[in-house]
User: Fold this.
Amino acid sequence: MKISKKKLGIWMDHTIAHIIEIKNNRITSNTIESLSLQGEKQNFGKDESLKYNTEQDQLSEFFKRLSAVIKDYSAVILFGPTNAKTELYNLLKEDSHFNNIKIDIETTDNLTKKQMHAFVKEHFENIG
Assistant:
């Protein structure tokens, strides 16, 4: 009995991640939002360092939530228009828990849900 690899695509920027799973030739999707989108707009006044530190904390939490999802897969493609995918990739490469997961990154434009699904499916078809 052949065991299929669990494959995951994540279209992301710094505020939202669209999680696309391929399992047994079925595609399912979910969304994870950064805490900056979930809460009220905060008033930092002129305190730029407080604003920066809060944004960094929110981004760190966002990446932790994505990492928790990624750890259950054998192959992952991170894609999207910003450098958020590269920042997450670099964090994952520093963590030995992700050593056995094949992680690719690719720059894309903003995509519709249908285009994201097609992109992930095509990516995994091309790499085997």
